[in-house]
Design brief:
Largest sheet: 8 strands, mixed
Number of strands: 20
Shape: globular
Helix content: 10-25%
CATH superfamily of the largest domain: FAD/NAD(P)-binding domain
Distance between the termini: 29 Å
Strand content: 35-45%
Number of domains: 2
Oligomer: single chain
CATH class of the largest domain: Alpha Beta
CATH architecture of the largest domain: 3-Layer(bba) Sandwich
Order of helices and strands: EHEEHEEEEHEEEEHEEEEEHHEEEE
Number of helices: 6
């Protein structure tokens, strides 16, 4: 019998499978899409996240981040990370690095989608596979979280995220958080000639419309788009419990 079955082959699911494999357990990941997958993501990893990746044996290429800077018009406030540098990295690069490490450790990734979950005192079955434990890492809109009755109603305002890359040399080694009454724009260096801009807001507008709330940033980035816009939301999720029986929620599925 499989020790750990992971539903969802994103960064959280692969990290769980890698951790299981390094503990000497058999881990199998079920994922319907070919890897790596590009999704809306801020793409900035805090120092603690960099350390966690290193502990898993994962060292993706990216841009060193020295700290965070908050910008609102002419006003700025910034702080340097105390626990070492962070890392700005394309989500696809992070995903590919995690997949390589999982493969090195013998983690099997099978094409499929976790659906109905059946479990008893000793095992759990989904997607035609039976394991001792199931990690539900099937994302922000987790069907497994809903089917297990673990999703709680949202009470806070809904927020949505949009991310786009721009072909420009980063002008700082800080993550810049630009503030306005309309929302925030997170600018993250992710390469020598590439920055990612993730916008968070309660308003459902296009990426270009959101950038009008940050005139100086919009002028800097105008005409330098490098790829499509990716979106996600509503972003906030809460759960009534971290798991049910032999199923544990992880990553975005865990709220």
């Amino acid at each position: 019998m499989i020790d750990i079955l992971v539903a969802g082959g994103g960064p959280a699911g692969l990290a769980a499978a890698i951790r299981a494999a390094t503990a000497g357990l058999e881990a199998v990941v079920v994922e319907p899409r070919p890897l790596p997958v590009d999704k809306a993501c801020g793409e900035g990893i805090m120092p603690s996240g960099v350390a966690a990746l290193r502990a898993l044996g994962v060292t993706p290429a990216g841009s060193t981040l020295r700290g965070i800077r908050y910008v609102e018009g002419p006003r700025r406030a910034e702080a340097v990370f105390r626990g070492g540098p962070g890392l700005g990295v394309r989500r696809t690069a992070l995903h590919a690095a995690l997949h390589r490490r999982a493969t090195e450790l013998g983690v099997r990734v099978v094409t499929g989608r976790a659906g109905e979950v059946r479990q008893d005192d000793d095992s759990v079955t989904t997607a035609g596979l039976t394991a001792r434990w199931l990690v539900a890492a099937d994302g922000l809109h987790s069907p497994l979280r809903r089917s297990l009755g673990l999703e709680r109603p949202r009470t806070s305002p809904r927020r949505y995220g949009l991310r786009r890359h721009y072909r420009i040399a980063p002008w700082t080694d800080f993550v810049e958080v630009h503030w306005s009454r309309e929302g925030e724009a997170y600018v993250t260096p992710v390469g020598e000639e590439l920055v990612g801009v993730a916008v968070l807001s309660r308003h459902r507008r296009s990426h270009e419309q959101h950038l009008t709330a940050f005139p100086a940033l919009a002028r800097t980035l105008r005409g330098l788009e490098a790829g499509p816009v990716r979106g996600a939301g509503p972003l906030r999720r809460t759960v009534s419990a971290p798991g049910a029986g032999r199923v544990l929620l992880a990553g975005d599925a865990a709220g």
